[in-house]
């Protein structure tokens, strides 16, 4: 992996991977994926969502962070993003006093007086972040969480959302540096901001499999409830999932895919992208959602008609464009007939009805490979 000094103006021992970009999609859906954002961010000791959001705010572009994919809408040159990364590093990583990159972001104060500073492990300085930058709002809402060992591959939201653990290590490890700037009461291991981003908070709990499939299981109950409440708001659906204590469970996505939509799913799916983005947090969740959709499309009384008019392609395209399902999972799904959710014949038919999309995906991928700027 190509690496580069974190500081561009010196040769020191701190390296990060060279930021890579890949253009995907076309037309209005064209977007720039940063495939190695997690690695770059890890080298900077920041959640990958921070530089991604920074790019978005500097470029005036929307960003999407889901399923370990970090995406800036629009087509952006790799060089431009690398320049912006350098700016990010100066503003949000390097110690303002000694320019060392080994810093932690620490939030102090409360309410309107919240501040972010960099705690430097090298010289002990606490240097303020310029709170006028838009990214600071995002950082305050998504404070950096202490890295969990062996948990590589958590989603962006898991990194920045999840339980809010205020970083305390600067205080614990810094000795003399102390916490004199921290005017909050005794160290709080966590703080609740449950009113913010309530859609996504608390939905990333560890995913534990259990095998209850019957109607009385919480999943069965969710399915029944969804059928009866298809017009429920996203928030109501999430409340129901919480009530049934299946928050974060990938199996809930089987029910969502199967029971929330009707024969008119091609039109309906677009109204539920925010919900699905919040709920689909791993590859497993993606597969369960696909399984549920497969059931819906294969078991509907109008299945043949639905499949004949390419409904599967339309639905998958929408979910791909919104970064709910990713390329790898989709390609894998498209090439593997399975009897896990419906019988084999049906499973084949559903995949056949996705032909147009799967072909498009393959071609779009070839194109983006040519366009990508990997020095
Ligand atoms: Zn320093």
TrEMBL record:
Gene3D superfamilies according to UniProt: 1.25.40.180, 2.20.25.350, 3.30.30.170
Pfam families: eIF-5_eIF-2B, W2
MF term (GO), any: GDP-dissociation inhibitor activity
GO BP terms: formation of cytoplasmic translation initiation complex
Keywords for this protein: GTP-binding, Initiation factor, Nucleotide-binding, Protein biosynthesis
Listed CDD domains: W2_eIF5
Compositional bias annotation for Basic and acidic residues: 193-206
Domain W2: 209-371
One GO CC term, this protein: cytosol
Stretches the record annotates as Disordered: 141-222
Record-stated family: Belongs to the eIF-2-beta/eIF-5 family.
Name of the protein: W2 domain-containing protein
Organism: Apiotrichum porosum
Species classification: Eukaryota, Fungi, Dikarya, Basidiomycota, Agaricomycotina
């Amino acid at each position: 992996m190509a690496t580069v000094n974190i500081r561009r103006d010196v040769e020191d021992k701190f390296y990060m991977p060279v930021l890579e970009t890949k253009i995907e999609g076309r037309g209005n859906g064209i977007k720039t994926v940063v495939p190695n954002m997690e690695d770059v961010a890890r080298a900077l000791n920041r959640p990958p969502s921070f530089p991604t959001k920074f790019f978005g705010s500097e470029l005036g572009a929307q960003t999407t962070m889901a399923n370990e994919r970090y995406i800036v809408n629009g087509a952006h040159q790799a060089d431009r993003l690398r320049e912006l990364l350098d700016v990010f590093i100066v503003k949000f990583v390097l110690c303002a006093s000694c320019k060392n990159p080994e810093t932690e972001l620490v939030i102090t104060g409360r309410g309107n007086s919240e501040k972010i500073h960099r705690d430097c492990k090298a010289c002990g300085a606490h240097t303020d972040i310029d709170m006028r930058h838009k990214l600071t709002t995002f950082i305050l809402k998504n404070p950096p969480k202490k890295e969990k060992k062996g948990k590589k591959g958590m989603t962006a939201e898991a990194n920045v959302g999840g339980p809010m653990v205020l970083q305390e290590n600067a205080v614990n490890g810094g000795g003399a540096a102390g916490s004199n700037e921290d005017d909050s009461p005794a160290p709080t291991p966590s703080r609740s901001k449950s009113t913010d981003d309530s859609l996504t908070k608390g939905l990333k709990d560890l995913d534990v499999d259990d095998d209850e499939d019957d109607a009385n299981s919480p999943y069965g109950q969710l399915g029944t409830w969804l059928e009866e409440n298809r017009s429920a708001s996203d928030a109501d659906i999430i409340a129901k999932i919480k009530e049934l204590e299946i928050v974060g469970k990938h199996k809930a996505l089987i029910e969502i895919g199967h029971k929330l939509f009707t024969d008119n799913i091609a039109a309906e799916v677009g109204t539920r992208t925010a919900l699905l983005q919040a709920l689909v947090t791993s590859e497993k969740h993606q597969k369960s959602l696909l399984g549920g959709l497969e059931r819906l499309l294969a078991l509907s009384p109008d299945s043949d008609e639905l499949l004949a008019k390419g409904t599967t392609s339309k639905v998958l395209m929408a979910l791909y464009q919104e970064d709910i399902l990713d390329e790898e999972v989709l390609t894998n799904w498209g090439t593997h007939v399975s009897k896990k959710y419906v019988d084999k014949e049906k499973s084949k038919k559903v995949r056949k009805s996705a032909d147009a999309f799967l072909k498009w995906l393959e071609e779009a991928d070839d194109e983006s490979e040519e366009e990508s700027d990997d020095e």
